[in-house]
Design a protein that fits this description.
Blueprint (H helix, E strand, L loop, with lengths): L1 H9 L9 H12 L4 E3 L5 H12 L3 E9 L5 E9 L1 H9 L11 H4 L21
Antiparallel strand pairs: 1-3, 2-3
Length: about 130
């Protein structure tokens, strides 16, 4: 989990490198031997880490409605470990995708950014 956090949250600048092991330990302490944890068991300061990990695809959340006494409905939120995604990120399977969304633009040549030239044989639209 620590390595997956390093390759996602740390790589994207969402947490400093020295916090990766602490965040991993905190998250795994909530899950224990299970793949799921109730959201109301998560402390509000730790929930921020859960949301960041969800953004990176390492956790997912779901909710269900449960009917309790007198017909009242409660919404129950769960967090789930995405083990295959965690494993792929920790083993380096995500190296290409963790470059960032802007990687495709950094790979483009300077000519591609020239607005006045246009593509060969393509006429710019009339204004």
């Amino acid at each position: 989990m620590t390595r997956a956090i390093e390759r996602t949250l740390v790589a994207h600048g969402k947490i400093p490198p020295e916090e990766a092991a602490t965040v991993a330990r905190t998250v795994l302490n909530y899950f224990g031997p299970s793949d799921a944890v109730l959201d109301n068991k998560v402390a509000s300061e730790d929930r921020d880490h859960f949301y960041r990990l969800e953004e990176e695809g390492l956790l997912s959340s779901e909710e269900e409605d449960a009917t309790v006494s007198r017909g009242k409905t409660w919404r129950i939120h769960y967090w789930f470990l995405k083990k295959s995604r965690i494993r792929a990120a920790s083993e380096g399977g995500e190296a290409a995708t963790t470059e960032g969304e802007d990687a495709v633009y950094r790979k483009m040549s300077d000519d591609s950014w020239n607005r006045s030239g246009g593509a060969a044989g393509v006429k710019p639209p009339a204004r």
